[in-house]
C-alpha cells in the first residue's frame, strides 16, 4: 500500500531555466579518473619525499 | 582517445607520447565508462529512460569527458521533460569539446523553438508550484495546475507522476492509470510509475473481487426454504368485439384528452390575444386623449392671448382717444386763457405715452407748465368738494392735483382717502399703493400699507 506522505518526499522540485548556470557550475564534481590521478600524484609526492628523507 | 592530462591524442601504448604521463589506469576507466555508455544507449533505444539515465550517470561519474555519454544523457533528460538538466549536460559537453560536438546542435535546436521552449519552462514553474501546494496540503489547487500542465505537456514525467499520486490518494484509479500509462509509454521502466501502476492494479483487482462477491451473493441458487410466487393468471381477451370496444374506449379517452389539454390551451391563447388587443387599443386611446388634452390647452392659451391682446389694444385705443380729447380741450381752454381748465384737462391725461404722435407730445409739453401754477387751485377745489361730502368728485380733483405735482404726498393721500370714502376701492387701493411705493418716509405709509394689505 502506497503511503502518500512517504511518496511525496520522493518528489523534488525541477530546476528552472534561471538556475541553469548554477547547475552547470555545481556539477563540476571530480570523476573517477581525476580521483585516481590525484591519488597517483599524492603517492608520487609521498614517495619522492621519502626518498629525500632517506638520502 | 585523448590523454587526460594534456589532451593529446593517445597511441596504442600506456604512455602519452606528448607529456609522457602513465595513462594505463585512465584507459581502463575510460573503457568501463564507455561500457556503461553502451548499456545506457541500449536502454535508451528500448525506451528504458530511467535505466539509461542511471547507466549514463555512472559512465560520467567514471569519466566526465565521455562526450557521447553526456550528450545522450542530455537527450534522455529532454525526453523526461527536464530541460534545464538536458541543457546543462550539453553546455558542459560543449565546454569540454567545443569542436565536432552534437551538443551544440542540440542546444541550438532547443533554443530555436522559442514558443515550445517557453511552454516547457512555464510548465516546469507550474509543476514546482503544484509541488509546493501539495507539500502545504493544498491538493485541490495542485490538481488544477497539474491537469493543465499534463494536458499541455504530457512529456513532463514529474508532473504526470505527481498527478498520478494525487489520483491514487483520491482512490481515482482510472485517472491515475491513464496518467501512469502516459509515463510508461515514454519511459517503459520508470520505477515510480511501475510501483504506482502495481498499486492501481491491485486496488482494481480488489474492487472487482468485491463486486463479483456481491453478485454471487445475489444469484445464489434456490434452496428448500425459498418461497416461489406463481405468475398472475390474467390473460388479455382476444376476440374481435373486445378489440372494437378497446378502440372506441381509446378514441373516447383521446377525445377527452384533447378536450382537457388542447382546448384550454387554445382558449388561453385566444384570451391572451384578446387581452393584448385590448391593451393596444387602450394605449392608442390614452395617446389620443393626451393629444386632445395637449391641443385643448394650446387652444386655451391662444384664446387667452388673443383676449388679452384685444383687451390691451382696445384699452390703448380708448386711452389714446381720451388723452387726445383732453389735450384738445386743454388747448382750447388755453386759447381762451382759462389756465385752471387747461391744467385740469392736462391732468386728466394719466399716461403721456398713449399720445402716439409727435405733434400731440409737443403740444402737451408746451401746455404742461400751466399745471404747476394751478395745483393749489385744483387742490382747493378738491378740498371744498370733500367738505361738501362730494367725495367722488373730490377724489378726481385730488388726483388731478397729484398729477400736476407728483412730489406732494398730501394730494395722493387725499385722493386715496376720497376714493375710499366714495367706496371706490380699486382706485383707493391704486393711490394708496402709490404711497407705499413712492412715499415710504411719509406719515401716511402705515395707513396706506394697512389698506393695501387689507384689500
Keywords:
heterodimer, A: 55 residues, mainly alpha, B: 455 residues, Serine Threonine Protein Phosphatase 5, Tetratricopeptide repeat, 18 helices
Task: Explain how this protein is built.
The complex is a heterodimer of chains A (55) and B (455). By secondary structure, chain A is mainly α. Chain A is 64% helix and 0% strand. Chain A has helices at 4-8, 20-26, 32-54. The longest helix of chain B is centred in the middle third of the chain and has 96 residues, at 240-335. In chain B, helix 11 (240-335) packs antiparallel against helix 12 (339-348). Chain B is elongated and about 170 Å long. Chain B is an all-alpha fold and 455 residues long. The termini of chain B are far apart. The chains are: A mainly alpha (55), B mainly alpha (455). Chains A and B meet through helix 1, helix 2 and helix 3 of A and helix 1, helix 2, helix 4, helix 6 and helix 8 of B.
- Pairing-aware structural class of the strands and helices of chain B? mainly alpha
Superfamily at the CATH H level of the domain at 24-112 in chain B?
A: Tetratricopeptide repeat domain
Summed up, the helix count of chain A is 3
Question: For the CA atoms, what is the radius of gyration of chain A?
Answer: 23 Å
Could you tell me the mean pLDDT of chain A?
A: 84
Topology:
The complex is a heterodimer of chains A (about 55) and B (about 450).
Chain A: H1 4-8, H2 20-26, H3 32-54
Chain B: H1 24-45, H2 49-62, H3 67-79, H4 83-96, H5 102-112, H6 114-135, H7 139-152, H8 157-169, H9 173-186, H10 191-218, H11 240-335, H12 339-348, H13 358-367, H14 369-387, H15 391-404, H16 409-421, H17 425-438, H18 445-454
Helix pairs in contact in B: 1-2, 1-3, 2-3, 3-4, 4-5, 6-7, 7-8, 8-9, 8-10, 9-10, 11-12, 11-13, 12-14, 12-15, 14-15, 15-16, 16-17, 17-18
